User: Which sequence fits this backbone?
């Protein structure tokens, strides 16, 4: 359960299991310079409500090819299981999302290609300068609200269901 910081990028080819204190927030970050990318080739899961923050900086990209399963913990039900992506250039999530908490994105481009059956138990907040894209099979079921409040546009390729509403600030291409 410790943070990981690297100056010139992070590449992990296998699965990651977060094993921190109950509801701990674990951060994976780079210095954000060009080429300081974060690449995760396996699945990501947690053990007791841990949440995960990625920060690859303004010029760093984030690629996750495996599934992401972050749940609330048995120690404090209803808390944790969040995924936060701060300050990233291009983000590609190819696996299935299964979060009990929120997904918060701030950056340029966010592409969600995994699916079907992506689930976000809380809110999906997208503050994008580039394009927010969901792939043709990347259905999203959101227990909270979808809030897109960036200056970038949106390309939606699959169904989105949000129990608490949908607020899109810019253009949508279907």
Assistant:
């Amino acid at each position: 359960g410790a943070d990981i910081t690297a100056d010139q990028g992070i590449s992990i080819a296998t699965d990651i299991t977060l094993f921190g204190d109950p509801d701990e927030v674990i951060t994976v970050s780079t210095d954000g310079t060009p080429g300081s990318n974060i690449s995760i080739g396996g699945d990501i899961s947690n053990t007791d409500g841990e949440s995960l923050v990625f920060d690859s900086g303004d010029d760093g990209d984030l690629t996750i090819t495996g599934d992401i399963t972050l749940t609330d913990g048995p120690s404090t039900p209803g808390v944790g299981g969040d995924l936060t992506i701060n300050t990233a250039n291009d983000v590609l999530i190819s696996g299935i999302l299964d979060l009990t908490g929120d997904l918060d994105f701030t950056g340029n481009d966010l592409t969600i290609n995994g699916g079907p059956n992506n689930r976000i138990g809380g809110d999906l907040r997208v503050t994008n300068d580039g394009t927010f894209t969901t792939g043709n099979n990347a259905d999203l079921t959101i227990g909270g609200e979808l809030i897109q409040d960036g200056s970038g546009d949106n390309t939606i390729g699959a169904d989105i269901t949000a129990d608490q509403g949908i607020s899109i600030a810019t253009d949508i291409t279907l």
In short: Residues 123 and 144 are 4 Å apart (CA to CA). The chain has a mean pLDDT of 95. The chain is about 0% helix and 50% strand. The two ends are 40 Å apart (CA to CA).
